[in-house]
Amino acid sequence: MGELPADGSGSAHDGSGSRRGTGRTEPELSRRLRDAIVDAARARTIAAGWDGVRMGGVAQAAGVSRQTVYNEFGSKAGLAEALARREVDRFVGEVRAALDAHGDDVRAAAYAAIRHTLAAAADNPLVKAILTSARGGSDELLPYLTTRSELVLAESSAALLEWAGRHVPEADPAALAFAADTIVRLVVSHIVLPRSPVDETADQLSHLAVHLFHAATTRPAG
């Protein structure tokens, strides 16, 4: 497989920021190159764990040279940072999509988002590591996953809160924020110590989510 050019070699330029014959700008080509490398690192991490990832193997899988990987990310630690950031963005984006797909149906939206999270953690050890800051494994990747776990909890809560704010507009903001944070933390606790099949857990937690959202709309007497 031919290497994706990282330095402009092998492609002519017309002075407009695009490479003749590709129709793509330099920033787009750079993004596509980095995406291909991170995709390769992600696949190898899921298959063999971060300890089994080698820069040369990532380069080969991405169709680039080993030096290109170092040029783009500086070190294996730099690649770990990019991988963790990508996984957070991917995961939170999927949570938002699951919520938005069900409009005003609070129960269905909560179920879809919770089920997706539980299933993703069960199927993808990298997602589970980020969500739970799982100890063990590579010392080099762990700090990024640990940091990202707090970020993904905050961003997942924010996604749920943003969605609930649109569909439960009469709720007290502070109570709604507490409900969103509670739901996310409960989901993570069931990832760490699962008790039931994914569908059953998602059903029970979505029922609880509806209850918490409803409680957020109830003003205390007096």
UniProtKB/TrEMBL annotation:
Pfam families linked to this entry: TetR_C_35, TetR_N
Region (Disordered): 1-30
Biased composition (Low complexity): 1-15
Every HTH tetR-type domain range: 31-91
Coiled coil (UniProt feature): none
Top-level lineage group: Bacteria
GO MF annotations in UniProt: DNA-binding transcription factor activity; transcription cis-regulatory region binding
Keyword Transcription assigned: yes
Residues in the DNA-binding region annotation: 54-73
Gene3D superfamilies: Tetracycline Repressor, domain 2 (1.10.357.10)
Keywords carried by this UniProt record: DNA-binding, Transcription, Transcription regulation
Protein name: Transcriptional regulator, TetR family
Native organism: Micromonospora chaiyaphumensis
